[in-house]
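Course assignment 3, question 2. Fill in each field.
Student: A.L.
Task: Predict the tertiary structure for the chain below.
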Amino acid sequence: MAMPDKMQASYFRGYDFAAPTIVDVGVLAGTPFLYESFPDRRFLLVDPLEESRDTVARRWPGLDHAFHVCALGAAPGRMTLSVDRRRLARSTGGARTGETAMLERREVEVRTLDSLTDGLPGPIGLKIDTEGHELEVLQGATATLARCEFVVAEISIKKRFAGGYRFSQVIAFMAVHGFEVHSFLSGLTRAPRMSDVLFLPADDPRFDMPPGRS
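Answer field:
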């Protein structure tokens, strides 16, 4: 039995996050729950697909945002992106386990998130969904994390990508940088493949249990 999907603005608004800047990494066609949760905030959007920038401009014409067409990683450079023209959401910089589809190869620029957020007013809200490259994105975002009010990251639980990270590696990395898991927002079934995980700073009072409920 699957748990309810919490990636809804009606749920997320309840956290009452104050971050004036929201960073959406891995945009594709847009992230409705995020944009609807923060209609009055400034967004920084990052995606390696030109198609994503065009789609967001069309679907979200009133969104206050800047868009960077690039991939993110632990260090700047270049990478080859495997693009599934039929299902752009499956595009990845790695090899998906069991993948047999004919994919387009596209070379893209890689930057670090820290290089994009330098100078942005904090605190920052951060969402990451990069099809298996979430840990690499975080490794290039240590200065950004120091200013984050929250992080939502899609984290693989099963081995979805060849040579991919282990779930525990992401949890440990976030702990080293002062974050703990507050909630699993999606994906939890009897045999979960991945989950969108909400991280908050370890000292956030939202971790405190109300009296009588511990």
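Instructor remarks: Helices lie at 9-12, 32-37, 50-59, 113-117, 134-139, 142-145, 167-176. The first strand starts at residue 21 and ends at 25.
Grade: pending
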